Amino acid sequence: MTTMNKEEKGHIHPITHTINEIVDVFVDMGFEVATGPEIEDEYHNFDALNVPKDHPARDMQDTFWLKGIPKLLRTHTSNVQARFGKEHGAPFKIVAPGKVYRYEATDRTHEVQFHQLEGMVVGKDINLGHLKKALLTFLRKVFGEDVDIQLRPGFFPFVEPGIEVDMKCFRCKGEGCATCSHSGWIEILGAGMTHPNVLNLAGINPNEYQGFAFGIGVDRIAMLKYGIEDVRQLYNGDLRIVNQF
Amino acid sequence: MLVSYEWLKHYVELPEPKKLADILNTRVFEVEGIEKKGDDFVIDIDVLPNRSHDCLSHIGIAKEIALLTGKPFKDLEVEKIKGDFKSEYNIKIESDACPRYTACEIKNIEVKESPEYFKVMLETLGQRSINNVVDIVNLVMIETGQPLHAFDADLIDGKDIYVKNAEKGEKMTTLDGQDLELDEETLVIKDSKNPLVLAGIKGGNKAGVNEKTTNIVLEAANWNRTLIRKTTQKYNIKTDSSKRFENEITPELTEKALERAVEMISKYANTSETKVSEVIDIYPRVANLYKVGVSTKEVNNLLGLNLKDSEIEEIFDRSGFEWKKVNTKDEVVKMSQEFVGVPYKLGASVVYDAPKAFDCSSFSAYLYAQNGLSIPRVSVDQYVFGKEITKEELEPGDLIFTNTGEGKIHHETIEFLPGIEIKEGVDHLRIYLGDNKVIHSTRTGEGVVVIEDFSTIPEEHIVGYRRMAEKDAERYVVTAPVERLDIRIKQDLIEEIGRVYGYDNVSEQDVDSIDRVPEINKEFEYNNIIKGVLCELGFSEVFTGSFVEKGDIAVLKPLAEDKGFLRASLVPLLEDALERNLKNADLFGVEDIKVFEIGKVFAGQDEKMVLGIGVTSKNKKTKSDDIVKSAIDKLNEALRTDIKENGSVVEINLDELKLVDLNEHFTLPQTETKKVKPISPYPFVLRDVAVWVPGENKEDEVLELIQKEAGDLLIKSTLFDIFSKDGKTSYAFRLVLQSMEKTLTDEEINPIMDSIYSKMEDSGWEIR
Q: Which residues of B touch A35 (CB under 8 A)?
């Protein structure tokens, strides 16, 4: 009798696992999944999101422009919020996971392609407390029930107020360790209350509706959670990381 | 921006550096670092883009600290320039991109080494000391945020200084020796012959201040941010000056910065003969102070707080905002009548022309803005913005819209909810004052005029009545400080209140259910379903790169020569992944490599979502095509599709599959993995061990022994052969050994294998 010790099941990529884990939390909170194109026009990637032309804010996301077509590779999945609002009107609660692209040199923590998960809620009385609860629910599910967050002022053209969200380090519980660069806190995501111009351009009356939005770097979450040291290992077709899942 | 702790102390009492960093971090800007330098601390502050108007300066940061700590801010006090003489220089502005140009001439100064204090401060902030005058110009910029420029007056040709676009091909050499060839879109400051400065960005070497300089022209100007940004990109020159201008700073700042620089030059570069000219100030269009309105209810509704009026008012006071609380509609009605007789100007600007000229809608927009409510600028947008009411419901302050049938009639909204069709058309509006009286700005020659009885308006002209604000609604009207260009809409005020009050005081709230049934996203759900089917069949998911050497769609700026196109197909990428993973088959303990990827490819002009499946094997007898085929059969079964692709690596267009609708969200099983083992950059080594063991079912025992002896270097062990004979069983294991630190050699491996063998023999097992 001769047998090969074959593995029966395959493995799912950690980015897929991470997206699914996050999506499941939000689906439980009544969100729906929205998707959109990776080749996008300038209007939906920038203009509709209140990023003014020639504003230094556009420096923050260096862009892959295409040759011969007046389009670009989306720099965030926020393009989905611009499209969804226009198509469906308010109210809504969406999460938009997907691949995005930035023109930048690659290193251990930077890839030209990566994944983002954008969330947006628009309703009559949506406030910052709702945002805080939604984010805490998600982070506690992913990183453990004792997670705490702090909100700091941030700037993103499509929200006002803009918020940076730090999470108390889940490894050292805020004591300071290598994971949190000894600060006790980890910068985890950007968020804010939807800018009225974004609603207005999506055809949603900003006097009747308000909302919140957040953007999660899926790769960053996966790297933190699973201790993956080099983001490039996630996009080179190599199974050595994938096979551990 | 680097900030000196000691310098900040001139304007505001400071907490300890560490505490200060904490306050800045949670209430305004991230602190990237604090470093002790001599007796001082340098704080590296990441000023946010929306505060780069006012906080790229020590004064801006100090004001912010005062606001956050509640300590008083001691403003910089400088004397007005009296002027010992009238300058002979003529400044000629021939561009819209220079909203203000302020300058003066200083005669008989002494350029020399800076005092020690300046040198230390510049060094602390990572800058180099040049000479007293250049250092002062730099320090005043760092202090106030206003860039300045000093020219050696004796090196300027003629007495005319122009702000104008360069001529095509005109040459200029910068202060640091870079030769530029200018084009006609480049704004420069020039004398009668040559360009002197790349406006707002960098000085030229022609009239630079040097140790021989005795007379200077000192300039503090304001430049259009878009132009500065384009020019810095065109010439690839970025400076401390351009950084501030491209973020936009208020033209109000030039005067004070000039005064400050003159005061310092008079003190540190003076001679007994030093004389300062009167100020030349060219400032053609002065903007109205910006008014922003908000109500307590709006603040609480957005922040989820329960602030009292007094708490909001206290924050306004600390922020240095001038504010009042008004009944918006009453004030609009009252204020409107102050402007009777103001001339009509079509397209009058609310910021620059009001209240000296109005058109019909700039009149209402201005009145509401002055009294706490921002409404759209254009009549048709105001028509959509307002709440629809009937003639009977009219209250003072409501608007009456007409279509006069003459001139430009708007049939579509422009800025507010753009693109809404307004069949009835709008071209004019009047403000109702009560008792049948209305007021409006009319193009018929009278300007702002009150009509005693609005029933004189032809009934057929009236298209509707609209209410901008409810009666008795009290709102705050805040006058934004001139440098706070970030305070433009009510949400900006709400942010100010929220961050000063502290976002940590916002309590969590559940989102109530909303009036929409979530839809199932077929693309997302089916991708997961497919992943689940393939994973069950032993396929693993890979992500390959989106940028490749050849394809249909190219990117403008490839990051590498072989990454100039977007992938048009997954097939070559999966073939490559299979080949590379096959080399690690032993590491994975498998013979066959089976992978898939779901992602976008970009073929033709478009993108499509595809599934790629591929198989390869170490075993030449394995039929990869068959494995793929059976996977596709399973998919067809699960998805109720008829996918026909075949081969060892296939690609399936998911967009074209006809998939049935789904009723619920699909959940893939979660992973149990907590933390990954890092990938070693060093090669692995294989060793096979085969051993006879008495009895049966001893593989765990064998493995345990192997693991114990091999230790951490053993990263995989696969039982690849097992058979029993004569009451004993043969187990053959393939061991994969690998180090995280180095390439393993026989010298490291052999002792391990020897100890495995000897321990096996000790157990009475027989090595094969």
A: 521, 523-524
